[in-house]
Amino acid sequence: MKRAFYIVFLLGVLLSMQSCDRIGNLIGESDTPKEQPAEVQAQESVDNASTDTLGTTKIQTQLLQNEDGIRALKDSLTSLNGKISSLQAAVDSLQQQQAELAQTKVGAKSLFVYVAIFAIFIVVLVLFLTKKKRGQDNLTEKQVKDIIADFAKDHPYLSGETLLKLERQIGVISNHKQALDSIITRLNKLETRIGNTAPLFNTQGTQTSSSEKPVAGGAQAGGTSNVFYMKRPQKDMEFDLSLRSERQTEETLYRFEIDRRNPNVAHFFFDCMYPNRVRWALSTRENTLDRVCNASGSDANGTYRCTAPGEAKLQDGKWVVTRKAVVIFD
């Protein structure tokens, strides 16, 4: 029994020892690195080298791709910069055109303003000339009164009622004077063509007297046939109708002879038969002589010579001087 127990005990010890050896071997194997064969190590080195080469190749490939991308990006930036420059040039051109257009608009506005001002000036000038012409076509109240006064002086036998009627008739005539002048001119031309030596009417609307003849100096007037007289002119280079007189008086200083070939043209002379009036004309020559005459010399005796007649044309109800008369005072 004991033997069996010892045998079992020994077997247990042996088995325990074997187990401990196995455990120690196992522990030793795990702690001590296991040496690999040379072939395995060489293969591992080749594998590692291949892995490093492949990584390097990948890195180089990636670098090349990055460089290509950088070059493409630079090209894109260069192209974009060119487009930006083109757009900037287009913007500058557009701004310049806009500035020129603004200047053109300003110039057009200025031109429009100038044209408007010129048009307004023309309209005002036309209205002024029209008003002035209308005023010249109608005799003023003073002119009518002067005509009536002269007529009353020449015809003292007329009554006041007759003069009143005459004033009314002159007012009617003055309102239609332009039309009457045209009719009288045509009648005179017709009479001249028929063969009369004198026109039927003068341009002031009075009938020509058959007994009225030109005075000395008519040969210089170029075929004159109707004569009347004028007082001192009130303006330069013109005689107003209110200054007219059918006969020579102390106040008249100029003799007019109407050209029978053109009733709107007359030749005039300085003609005064009163020495005192001649001396007075010389003393007031600036207003009496120089306005319509080229006068020279000076004489206290009142003698003179009219060496060249003046010429006047009937325009707008007045005789406008186109050539001055020449007078020499001896």
Topology:
Elements: H1 2-31, H2 38-137, H3 141-154, H4 160-175, H5 177-194, E1 224-230, E2 238-240, E3 244-245, E4 254-259, E5 265-270, H6 275-283, H7 285-288, E6 293-297, E7 305-308, E8 310-315, E9 318-323, E10 325-329
Parallel strand pairs: 6-10
Antiparallel strand pairs: 1-3, 1-4, 2-9, 4-5, 5-8, 7-10, 8-9
Helix pairs in contact: 3-4
Task: Write out key terms for the chains shown.
330 residues; alpha+beta; three-stranded mixed beta sheet; 7 helices; 58% helix; rod-shaped
Give the averaged pLDDT, no decimals.
75
Q: For the largest beta sheet, what order do the strands appear in spatially? A: 2-9-8-5-4-1-3
Order of helices and strands: HHHHHEEEEEHHEEEEE
End-to-end C-alpha gap: 211 Å
Contiguous uncertain segments of 5+ residues? 195-225
Give the fraction of residues assigned to helices. 55-70%
Class from helix and strand fractions: alpha+beta
Tally of helical runs: 7
Give the CA-based shape: rod-shaped
Work out the radius of gyration. 66 Å
Task: Count the E strands.
Answer: 10
**Biggest sheet, open or closed, and with what strands and sense?**
7 strands, antiparallel
Strand content: 15-25%
